[in-house]
Amino acid sequence: MTMKMAKDKYVLVAADFAGLELKDAVVRHLKERGWHVTDVGAKAQDTGTPEMYHRIGLRAGTMIAEGEFERALLFCGTGMGIHIAASKCPHVHSAVVESVPAALRCVTANNCNVMAMGGFYVAPRTGMAMADAFLEHKLGDGYEEWEGFYEYHKLGYDELENFDYEARHGSFGRGTEGACLLKAGARLVEKAPHDILGKGVLWTCRR
User: 130: Cβ–Cβ under 8 A, 6 or more apart, which residues?
Assistant: First the structure.
């Protein structure tokens, strides 16, 4: 299966009933801009009892985790519930945003592949602008101009992506003592201290 990439204008969207109107407005905007949108619910024509936010979030999160799509936009009342659900899936790096600067930051600094927003609080045109910021940028794209911006945030992303809670050994964070176990493929690797940008000791992974 080939992942559908944002650079090729493919995006996954999902919403519960509370985020439906905002989702539909954003989808119309994206289609006008040439995006190929896969919508996995909810939809205006749905009848019966609305599907709950967490089930829709898990469905979308699974599609990201399994490599079907690179990016997803999620919508519920606040953005929070569907974000929590999607975040239960591995390899999902999700953010809840309510402004264009936050949407830009979540991808350029945190490399998020899922962005959630709330129909109760986000106006349609703001949602459209946030979607554009999220989908049209990538990690390190000039949000801030300082040396090592990409390297600093890539290190954070890599550590989060590889962190294995089940190992539950050592310590994680700043300092020169202890180590944290990360999972690299099927094996655990011990991390060694690494100084970056003169900002103190962070941990990096020895492959």
Answer: 97, 99, 100, 102, 103, 115, 117, 122
pLDDT tens-digit map of 69-120:
999 999 999 999 999 999 999 999 999 999 999 999 999 999 999 999 999 9
The model's pTM: 0.81
Residue 112 designated active-site:
no
Catalytically annotated residue among 76, 89, 180, 205: 76
Sole residue written with tokens 């390297």: 151
DSSP 8-class letter at 119: T
Cβ contact 90:84 at 8 Å: no
Condensed to tens digits (0 to 9), the pLDDT of residues 118-162 reads: 999 999 999 999 999 999 999 998 767 778 889 999 999 999 999
Structure confidence by residue, pLDDT tens digits, 38-66: 999 888 777 788 899 999 999 999 999 99
Range 105-109 contact pairs with CB under 8 angstroms and sequence separation of 24 or more = 105/143, 106/134, 107/133, 107/134, 107/137, 107/138, 107/139, 107/141, 108/137, 108/138, 108/139, 108/140, 108/141, 108/142, 108/143, 109/139, 109/143, 109/144, 109/149, 109/153
CB-based contacts of 139: which residues, under 8 Å, 6+ apart?
A: 107, 108, 109, 111, 150, 153, 154, 157
